[in-house]
Amino acid sequence: MLREAVSQIPDGDYTAGLRAVVRHIDAAIKHFERAQSTQEEDAFTDSIYRTNQAYEGSLKEAYRVISGENPTKKTLFEIEGYLQGNHDLRARVLTQMARYREDYRNPSTHDYKLDFDENEALLAILSVAAFAKLLADQISTKVSFNQAKLDIEKSSTKIPVVKGDDADSFFENLSNSLLNFLNKSSLDGVTERENAALISAYLASANVPFESDVEVDTERYIIEWDVIVEYSKDVKIGFDIKSSRGRQSPEITEERASNLLDWLHDGKMRFGILVEGAARGQKYVRNEFMSAQGVKVHRLGRQALD
Known about the structure:
It contains nine helices and six strands. By secondary structure, the protein is an alpha/beta fold. A six-stranded mixed beta sheet has the order 1-2-3-4-6-5, with helices on both faces. Strand 1 (210-217) and strand 2 form a beta hairpin.
């Protein structure tokens, strides 16, 4: 999964580093297998030294992409601190980062007498591989956003700043502006990640504060939002963004909106926007409906609801 995720990210100055991360994990696996076949106990520790390299490489390339700066003059401590304070990273990435650092990287770095056994080496490989995959996804999202933002700036499509005297008028203006942008723009996100990056780039150009890839832990389950716009502390707009491949039936679309938006019983999520593409060449149309809990939903797609 990690190799595939890295291969799908467009080439850039981060490419060599990400490929090195994959090689370090491959080498860690070979050390692990050598230890199993030869009973050479130090090979398990050698395996973790390689996972440490993969961990550090993942962090440096994430820092390169997210901050836009070269990581070579930064210490790992500075890079970890930056990423922990940056809202571009999802909570589960930060959790995985802290777990690997505390369980493997710090002990193996500061205690030269430490030996790791088979189980510890296996867990280290699994942990760093999962961490590197999560960071690769975050890097891909940021790269897609940067490219979409650049494409918007180069295009002839002008995006006005979205304003509103109250929450309802702001939501209407935002929906109208986004619909106009989608119909005028020649840009299109093929995958869900690219489509979410395109919408995020639009919001940045329209001077609308937003957060991407937001996880909200409810009492029942975790809700994952592609984008959340916060009009105020008490009023939020949730975005659910689908790819331009395929299409959903109208029934699934409306049901998904209701399920996704109705969990917030405190009333903060008062509005929702679904962006759902289909075949190229069709104009985006808007459908409006209210969810069961009274959330106003605008669905923007290339197929009208029946």
